[in-house]
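Late entry, written up from scratch paper. The run itself happened at the end of the previous shift, but nothing got recorded in the book at the time, so transcribing now.
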Amino acid sequence: MTTAQELPSLLQQALAQHQAGQLEVAQQLYQQLLQANPADPDALHFLGLLTCQTGEAGLGIALMRRSIVACPNAVYYNNLGNALRDHGELLKAIDSYRQAVTLQPDYPEAHNNLGNALREAHQPHDALKSCTHALTLRPGYAQAYNNLGNALKDLGDLDAAAQAYRQALASWPDYADAHHNLGNVLLALDLPDAAIESYRCATVLNPASAQMHNSLGTTLVARGQLAAAIETLTRALQLDPDDAHTHNNLGSALRDVGQIEAAVAAFEQAIALSPDFAEAYSNLASVLRRQEKFAAAIAAGRKALELNPSLVDAYNTLGNAYVGLEEFSAALEIYHQALALDPEHADVHHNLAIVLLKSERAEEALESAHIALTRKDGMAQGHVNLGDILRCLGDLDGAISSYRHALERDPDVDSTHTSLLFCQATRATATPQAYLADARRFGELVAQRARPWPHTLPDHEPELRPLRIGFVSGDLRRHPVGIFLESVLAAMNPAQVTLIAYATVSNEDSLTQRLKCHFAAWHTLSGMSDEAASRKIYEDRIDVLVDLSGHTSSNRLGVFAWRPAPVQLSWLGFFASTGVAAMDYMLGDIHVLPENEASHFVEKPWRLPCSYLCFTPPDDLLEVSAAPLLHNGYVTYGCFGKLSKVTDDVIAVWSRVLHAVPDSRLLLKAHELSSASAQRKMQVRFAAHGIEADRLLLEQGAPRSEYLAAYHRVDVMLSPFPYPGGTTTAEGLWMGVPVLALKGERFVTHICESVLHGAGQAAWIAQDREAYVAKAAAVASVAGREALVSLRAALRHQVLSSPLCDAPRFARHLEQAFHDMWAQYMNQSRVNA
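Output as recorded:
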């Protein structure tokens, strides 16, 4: 039996055990006190607190209420308020805090707790008053400053909120919550680096807080510090594995570092934990699109919009997925829906511009690209996009300027260097030296990232064995590379070479299927890092690795910097130096690689006999027609190349031809001429040189069979300069139409010359502009027309029997080149050993 004298001591023991976390012992002591005095207010109250702590909030609150009935005081009301707030009874908690400050107006903790509860009840003005009162009663009260900052943040006064959090930290430097809240406000003030510093302090002070780790990790993702973000978010998930938002944020970081499979898993886990998480569905759609799983990406994007019809990013991602399927009309509709919700969204304007460009609506694309950059000038990709559009419109100087702006903002993007170099290589005013300087900068960039693979000589290398030849290309399809490659591959001798393909994209067509049968193995590098791709090639024991892209889209020149093969060369797909020091050779012929131009390359020139190209004739069984001048009564000139090749300089020379032959016509056929505005613009450009619109026949592009039939309406093809036609030249000759070229001064300008030499048509190469105009005009004379009619009838046979179409002969030359390159490597390696 407990005596009255023992009760105060027993209460002190109970409180001590309670504070020490010995809850079972404290509970027994409180109950012992109540056995002695069932109305003991302290025993009732603190047993109620303990009961709430052990998860029986209802019973604990009831005990606390009994204590207040027995002895109403401010402390009891304050503690009851805390219990009610923790139990989700916010309004009752506010009433309890009010009772506390009524009974004891100078009670700073109760005023602070009241302010915190009022903020949670969305009453920030009243919260502000209560926290201010608490600070009046206790200057330097850190928790009150923290809650004051929260109220100010809710009221939108971010600067004042930041100052309140700083005052909290001045009183209590190790206050983790204040560091975290300060980070939130700094982020809202667009001070992400300062926010990261605050978040780091919070996670150090409270390493068990998943929320704080998540805030830090999310901000690191936004700042591009992805490795640190992944580490931090992984830690957050270790602390709270069921937080869907953290899984979503981790997925974003994994996506941005290229760990696509892991990102998919993270987004799927976020959705499993929160099936209505629209942002996670949108993010899942973005990575599925990168995996080229376009149908699945569309389904995920649609689900995101079903859950949140106002989620603009989901519209953007959905539109991108339709672009992947080349369903441009659907993509345009989606992007316009997004802009109806957010007319200022830079990324949507950016993607809209890309689709308009792909839809051959370049002038509209230009407007969207400018809007995107107005909204988000720091977006490097926006400047790239603008450059692509300007290039399509023929403004190479403007395009180059845009690409340089992009590189100023993000100098490490290979594709931007490629776009710049492509323009530099085809610009009339660019010198080979200026191009090479830019190419070398790209080469240095990829070399800095690479760690070349080791190559050792075998102990017993056979004198003659099939060399393992790897071809790296994104154009193993109906593309000039595929067209020029097909007949050569079919003629290659398996006893001399074993061919392995490394496709850099997954897009395939009927020509891809025909090409595949000529390779011993076919691998896709799409989605692989340069290191992983180079490891694959290295482990395949490739002897000679051939780049078929140069600085064109989908190239993987960065892989070559790792030197996965002992011998590496560039051929066929480009017309200038790659700039990559690890590229040993540039494969060409005496026409595109004359001796006096060797200084244009970091690679060593390697010249094939006759021609560096071998044309595969079309499958279409189109006959050569009679010369159209016979029924038209006038000469029709033509050009079927990209409109960007038709520069103002070219138009000036072609206008001279049309003036020299007054009744002649010029047929231009290009995809870019699909709109009436584009055609009017072309008419205006010729009108500046006195050429009437009725002299021009302007047509949009067409499928290949229809396109080839258009040669039936042309007497002479005019090759543009400095970027002439290669495939169009060969196709024109095959269709019986001679092609007039202007002699150039660097690789790209020599392409048409090489084709004409290979086809035995070197007489159609003009040495300068005067000769170009004279040769074009000469066909209109009586003798010229007779010669043109005779040549047309014989030209296809001449082409088919020329080196340009002699695939077996070309294949022997190519095999020999590979073996000679290998022999040089072996000899040099032995000397160095």
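The chain is about 60% helix and 5% strand.
(Scratch paper discarded after transcription.)
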